[in-house]
Amino acid sequence: SQTIHQWPATLVQPVGSPLSLECTVEGTSNPNLYWYRQAAGRGLQLLFYSVGIGQISSEVPQNLSASRPQDRQFILSSKKLLLSDSGFYLCAWTRGWDTEAFFGQGTRLTVV
Amino acid sequence: DAKTTQPNSMESNEEEPVHLPCNHSTISGTDYIHWYRQLPSQGPEYVIHGLTSNVNNRMASLAIAEDRKSSTLILHRATLRDAAVYYCILRDVSNQFYFGTGTSLTVIP
After folding, report:
1. Which residue of chain A is at minimal alpha-carbon distance from B86?
2. pLDDT band at residue B94 using 50, 70 and 90 as cut-offs
3. Which residue, of A55, B3, B4, B95, is most buried by count of CB atoms within 10 Å of its CB?
């Protein structure tokens, strides 16, 4: 069966520090991968998605970047965090638009 | 951007059916209608999806209007564990998918 792992679960980082969040998928190949952010009390905002290794599409210009160094690995990064980067970050995967999507349990990031 | 509109909140009594509506007037022929739900501090959970015909699974039923411009998620007997934010999403061949604000369902014991 397929599983998605996302870590860490919670993270407190000072302003200006770097960030690296990792997401891995098991049990499938060539998944479509997504990063979302959810601010407190708000809906999910699509940040990045990837249809293959090294292929990243950015939805919102911002302080974050994403990379896909391996087929089932998706990394969200920042060189210098801002207070506004705080939020709940979710990774998701899907095989295609006609199949269900699966979400990780999320990382709650607090920038202080 | 989200292509669906949903009521911000709804209430239901426990053990009664719940009908959650969604409007998607700009849907195209190949767009699938997906529903997910999210509990506090958790990732969204897949509920159901469909293209044209009504769909049933162990969690819910999805009723799709004949013109496909609206759909309804049906929970046959609401339980306290069904209290969540329900998102209706259109997914197209581009593989991008966008969440709106969803419907916050409160289940009253």
Report:
1. A43
2. confident
3. B4
Q: What is the maximal distance between C-alpha atoms in chain A?
A: 41
Q: pLDDT by residue (tens digit) across B17-46?
A: 999 999 999 998 889 999 999 998 899 999
Q: Which of the 8 DSSP states describes residue B30?
A: T
Q: DSSP labels for chain A?
A: --EEEEE-SEEEE-TT--EEEEEEEES-SS-EEEEEEE-TTS-EEEEEEEEETTEEEESS-SS-EEEEEETTEEEEEESS--GGG-EEEEEEEES-TTS-EEE---EEEEE-
- Please list every residue in chain A whose beta carbon sits closer than 8 Å to the beta carbon of residue B43: 90, 92, 103-106
Q: How far is CA B74 from CA B16, B54, B61, B64, in A?
A: 11, 11, 5, 11
- Is B102–A102 a contact, with Cβ atoms under 8 angstroms apart? no
Cβ–Cβ below 8 Å for B95 and A43: no
Size of interface A-B (CB pairs under 8 A): 63
> Do the Cβ atoms of A100 and B87 come within 8 Å?
no
